[in-house]
Amino acid sequence: AQKITQTQPGMFVQEKEAVTLDCTYDTSDPSYGLFWYKQPSSGEMIFLIYQGSYDQQNATEGRYSLNFQKARKSANLVISASQLGDSAMYFCAMREGIDGATNKLIFGTGTLLAVQP
Amino acid sequence: GAGVSQSPSNKVTEKGKDVELRCDPISGHTALYWYRQSLGQGLEFLIYFQGNSAPDKSGLPSDRFSAERTGGSVSTLTIQRTQQEDSAVYLCASSSPLQETQYFGPGTRLLVL
User: For residue A72, what is the DSSP state?
Assistant: First the structure.
């Protein structure tokens, strides 16, 4: 069964430092997509970055990069040069398959990141 | 509109009443999804629409929950005879035919007293 595991319930990081949020996944489907979302205290889910299972290179979006290690089934999010506004809950999610029968996302339990000045 | 919109933003209801939650997806997005976020259960998938049909309803927790989508756009999630355990944030998302990414609305916070 598909599963997403985020083992860090909470993390602290100093402003301007880099931080890595861990995510491992389990799937038997050769085709899947991995996503990271940010949820600030206001509650909205903000899309950060996407990695497809067949993508050869790690995804990057500004200060966000995804450290995709397919053999280890991990998809860690790296935030460089942390800012106070990065303080939020971060969710890793996975979508299996490409046949369109279901496009549901399976979410991890989230990591609460606190950026300290 | 520019993003996914949901209404109402907050809803307080009494146990046993019916509620309707509305989602207006991003223009041109053919896929629409409902999720629920609660303290005990985290983020759970409820239902997925492609156009007006729902190929995957596997996440609806009981027959008190139903959803429809009309005109390939607006969707309504209906909860009949609400229970206290239905209290949660109900999130709607949409995606375009050309992209996998799901974009979320601000959610409806439902409290059942």
Answer: T
